Amino acid sequence: MNYKVIINMPILNHEIPELRELVGWGRRDKDFPTLFKRCNFWAGVRNENNKLIAFGYVAGTGLEHGYMEDIIVHPDYQKMGIGVELVRELLRESGRYGLEIVTLTYDPKHKIFYETCGFIPCSGGLWKKQ
């Protein structure tokens, strides 16, 4: 089946926490609907039963630089190209939105996935509140 990535797809507040939980991440229920108000744009993919099976978003000031985050694909739909198409569509939308640079952080085990999507590995830093 061919799945379609839709920018700013209507998503119910509980759908992303449920998807996050399925991939082993914290639900972060309190983030929704605030995330939709604060990010530049998001993308989603639904299956034939209208269930959300993939999600990701780009945040930032909306000027030159954006930050891609929370690329999630339901475990039953991984390794089917959905994640790559989701990221590529978010990057296309970034260009339409006027962003010149999109960055992200990822677990090293996902390096090849993000290179396939067009990202160039680079060094950076991370600050996390203790």
Q: What structural class is derived from the secondary structure elements? A: alpha+beta
Largest sheet properties: 5 strands, mixed
Fourth-tier CATH superfamily name: Gcn5-related N-acetyltransferase (GNAT)
Number of helices: 4
- How much beta, percentage-wise? 15-25%
Mean of the pLDDT scores? 94
Number of structurally distinct domains = 1
Q: Which topology does CATH recognise?
A: Aminopeptidase
Note down, in words, how this protein is organized.
- The protein is an alpha+beta fold and 130 residues long.
- The chain has one domain: Aminopeptidase (3-Layer(aba) Sandwich), CATH 3.40.630.
- Helix content is 27%, strand content 23%.
- It has a five-stranded mixed beta sheet.
- Strand 3 and strand 4 form a beta hairpin.
